[in-house]
Amino acid sequence: MTIADQIIAFNSHLQFPGKLPTGIRVLNPFQEGPGIIGIMTQFYKKFYDDKGQRQLILGINPGRLGSGSTGVPFTDTKRMWDKCGIEIPGLKTHEPSSVFVYDVIEAYGGVKAFYQQFYISSVCPLGFTSLQPGGKEINYNYYDSAALTKAAYPFIVSKLKEQLKWNISREVCYCMGTGKNAAFLQALNEKEQFFKEVVPLEHPRFVMQYKSKTKSQYIDKYLTAFAAHP
After folding, report:
1. Scanning 78, 147, 191, 227, which has its CA 20 to 30 A from the CA of 197?
2. Which Pfam families is this protein grouped with (predicted)?
3. How far is the CA of 214 from the CAs of 33, 56, 90, 100, 210, in angstroms?
4. Are strands 24-27 and 127-131 parallel, antiparallel or unpaired?
């Protein structure tokens, strides 16, 4: 099996087995989005259809506009077409985090070079939404409440273990998010000894929302971290 086959099978069989706190719903793009399995399959077959080792980059959990729309972390429909050459007819999403990630990818040397070296996943590979008064759903992170973190913990650990059975480097894991995501992952890593080192980097959403004027500095920070762990 190539790493593409492993990722596609992993994504296609994702199911959250636990009981969730009231008002929280699982976001499973692979079951909810029409055609997402097909889009995701095209992407991984295009960039991961080999057995080469990858370094792991972990985000938080899928959001509605990035992997929620394409099945690929930090890849909205615009980047999927413009950068990856995979068209999604009839659906248009724009995610600021995706803009930043693809700026990093471009600076690294483009999609082919980047995806040959790295695999982007999430600490929790399924997302969550919270129902607001009036019926609006908003993205909700696994660490946004202690009750959800507790409910998601066994799932997070088992799914990370599953992915680490593939040809993924255990030397380093890059963590997107220097706050709660990094704190959770570093504590988990101390307990489970998944990686020799966890390297926190500013989350793409944080950069785009609060630091967009100095975005290039954060792109450089990512590239410097990557260069330190070839």
Report:
1. 147
2. UDG (PF03167)
3. 35, 25, 34, 12, 9
4. antiparallel
What fold is seen in the domain 3-228? Uracil-DNA Glycosylase, subunit E (3.40.470)
Tokens standing for residue 85: 């050459």
Total-model pTM: 0.95
Tens digit of pLDDT for each residue in 86-127?
998 887 888 899 999 999 999 999 999 999 999 999 999 999
Maximal C-alpha separation, the chain: 49
Rounded Cα distance between 138 and 161, Å, is: 29
